[in-house]
Description:
Blueprint: H1 4-16, H2 22-43, E1 52-57, H3 63-73, E2 89-93, H4 100-110, H5 122-135, E3 140-144, H6 155-169, E4 177-182, H7 186-192, H8 194-197, E5 200-205, H9 210-227, E6 231-232, H10 238-248, H11 253-270, E7 274-275, H12 277-288, H13 307-310
Parallel strand pairs: 1-4, 1-5, 2-3, 3-4, 6-7
Helix pairs in contact: 1-11, 4-5, 9-10, 9-11, 10-11, 11-12
Amino acid sequence: MNDRKDIHRRLALLRDDFVRNEPYHSFFEQFDRQLQRRRAAQSLDLIEEARAIAVIGAAGSGKTRLVKRVLEQNQDLTDPKDGDELIDYVRIIVPASETMKNLAILLREKLGYESERKSDNASEIWRQVHVQLRNRRTFYIHLDEAQHLIASPNENVRAGVVDRLKTLLNNDTWPVGLILSGTPKLLEMLNSDPQLGRRVDLVKLPAISRVSHAKEVQAIISAYAAKAQISLSEDLDFDDLVPRLIHAGANEFGNTIAMLGFALEDALLEGAAELNLGHFSEAFRRTAGCVPALNIFVAADYLSIDARKVFWDHFSKFGGK
């Protein structure tokens, strides 16, 4: 009988695993350069205008995990924890249709500022935020799902968002760098204001394809199977499987890894000795609830199936966000 607890521990380790692809290295390099500039300026008591990094990718590309991994694994950074006086960065997931006042309230809470006044206006709350950012020596704010900042159709509201971001970057007492991760819609905001645009370094997570990523995906399948402690079936045809897997992931890197995770989960819980194509098709069927004709791992004309419409909007379990 399978030890399901052990299986789920192995799956948890797989979900925590991270593939360091080209966008990861690009973001790491950009972030490290900016951080070291800030630390050097601080050591000399100099105040320099901060910069931003925009990490742009479609839903399922893996941008959120990419940013979190770089920040969390940087041993020179501190995030908000009870008892920490200094905080190098804070992270906010921007809710849909968020106002800048509410965003300021969230930031104030993250920075540990407690206010008993409920009637503070937006300007006062942002003043409190800037004071806390300076007092806690915060270098960066990570705004995830940053495209929500420009959800309002009101041009004045959108312009106010841009102005607030620029104020954070060039504050005269404590400039704060920004990490903006979001969908390509975020580019609208960056392109709308030349002053903001020149302060932003861009990292894009492009779509993947059989042509560009087949060898990489095949290597990941083998590596993940080894970590999951399961063999690959001799009947597994990578020339057929890899293009199907990439298509099932809607040509997004994060989604593709997620789909592989679902197949491994099915194989391990079934008690299979080998991972085969049937585990991919069953994982797709179980998760998407689709008929065989819409199953990318079964259908002959699988390229005609739109994976996003079938089910990817529901998936983030294996880190496809």
